[in-house]
Amino acid sequence: MKLHIADSYERASGLAAAEVCRLVQAQPEAVLCFAAGDTPRLAYSLIVQKAREEQIDFSRITFIGLDEWVGIPPENEGSCHYFLQENLIRPLGLMPAQVHLFDALSRDLSAETERLNQAVAHAGGLDLILVGIGMNGHIGFNEPGIPFDSYAHVVELEAFTQEVGQKYFRTQTVLNQGITLGLRHLTEAKQAILIANGLKKAEIVRQAIEGPVSPDVPASVMRLHPGGLFLIEREAASALHSSPA
Ligand code: F6R
What we know:
Layout: E1 2-6, H1 9-26, E2 31-34, H2 41-53, E3 62-65, E4 67-69, H3 80-89, E5 99-100, H4 109-122, E6 128-131, E7 153-156, H5 159-164, E8 177-180, H6 183-188, E9 191-196, H7 202-210, E10 229-233
Parallel strand pairs: 1-10, 2-3, 2-6, 3-5, 6-9, 9-10
Antiparallel strand pairs: 4-8, 7-8
This protein binds fructose -6-phosphate.
C-alpha cells in the first residue's frame, strides 16, 4: 500500500488522471474499472482533456462500471450509469461493445452479477480500478461487514448510504439496494487507486488507513493490495496521525 497526500483536490485528481492515461498509453487494451460519485468527477474530466490533447487512444480499452443503485434507470441523472456515460464513456467516444455496466433494472440480478463477473474474467481481470470512499467506508456498494473475498453481488444498503445517496438525485429516491463488483475484484486488480477529498472524509480515511484491516471498514482492504494507492487530498488526510496536515 502507498499513501500520497496531495495539496489539493486538483492535484489528487491530476495524479489519478495521469496514472490512467499512462496505463492506457502503455497498454491500449487495458481493463479499467471506474466508480461514479462526486470525488472522481474532476479526475474524469482531466482524463478526457488529456486524452484529447495527447491523442491517447481509448478505443481498445475494456470499461467496467463499479456499481449501480438497484431499480434506478440509466437515464436518471443520479444513476452511476448516467454519471459514467456523461463524464467518461461519451466524451471518450467508447463503443457499447467495450463497456460493461450493471443493468439495475434486470429481473434477474443474480444473473447480472454473474454477467459482470464474467465480463471481468473474460477480459483477463482488472488492470486498474479507481474508487472513492463512502462516509461509512464502503467501496462501490461493499457496505461494512461484506467479506473481502466477495465478487459481484447485490447488497442491502445501510440507511446512512441511502441518505447520503440522495445528493445525486433531484427528488427523494428509494435507494435500498445496490449491485456492485466485490472487494476481491479490487484485491485482484493489478492497480487500485482510492481518491478521497474534503474534511468530511477525514475520519473514515483515518480508519481506513490507520485502523484495523477489517470488513467493518471496507476501504481498509486497500492495505492488502501491494500496489494499492491512497490518493488523499490534504483536508481528507487531516485526521491521520502520520500526517503533518
Ligand atoms: C459510486 C461508488 C461509491 C462512491 C462513494 C463516495 O460508484 O462506488 O462507493 O465512491 O460513495 O461517493 P462520493 O465520491 O460522492 O463522496
